[in-house]
Write a structure and sequence with these properties.
Elements lengths: L10 H37 L9 H17 L2 H18 L8 H15 L2
Length: 118
C-alpha cells in the first residue's frame, strides 16, 4: 500500500466527528422544541394580565414595570426584582405603606443590594 494511506482512522478524529455530529443534531432538533415551549409559556403568562386591577394604580404600575423590564432585559429574575422594588416604592409614595407585609420588605433588602452592587 502507499505510504500516505493509513489503514485505520485516528481515534481523536473519529471522536471529534462523533461529537460534532451529536452537537449538530442536538442543536437542530432541540432549539425548535425549546422555542415552542418558551412561546407557549409566554402566552400563558400574558393571559394572567386580565386579573390585574387596572383601576388601582398601586397594583397596575408595578405590574406594567415588571412586564416591561422582563421583556427588555430578557431576564425574568431582573424583571421580577424590579417589579417587587417598584411595588414597594409605589405603595410608600401613595401613602399605602400599611398594605405592605413583612416578607416583601425583608425580600427587598437583598434585591436592593443586588441592584446597588451590580
Amino acid at each position: 500500500s502507499p505510504e500516505n494511506v493509513l489503514p485505520m482512522t485516528d481515534i481523536n478524529s473519529y471522536l471529534d466527528f462523533c461529537l460534532k455530529l451529536f452537537l449538530a443534531f442536538g442543536l437542530a432538533f432541540q432549539i425548535p422544541v425549546l422555542t415552542y415551549i418558551l412561546i407557549f409559556i409566554g402566552i400563558l403568562m400574558m393571559t394572567s394580565i386580565k386579573f390585574i386591577d387596572m383601576e388601582d394604580l398601586t397594583e397596575f404600575v408595578p405590574a406594567a414595570i415588571t412586564i416591561m423590564f422582563t421583556i427588555f432585559t430578557d431576564n425574568m429574575a431582573t424583571g421580577m426584582s424590579i417589579g417587587i422594588l417598584s411595588h414597594i416604592v409605589v405603595k410608600i409614595v401613595t401613602g399605602k405603606a400599611k398594605d405592605l407585609n413583612l416578607p416583601i420588605l425583608i425580600l427587598s433588602i437583598p434585591l436592593l443590594g443586588y441592584f446597588i452592587f451590580l
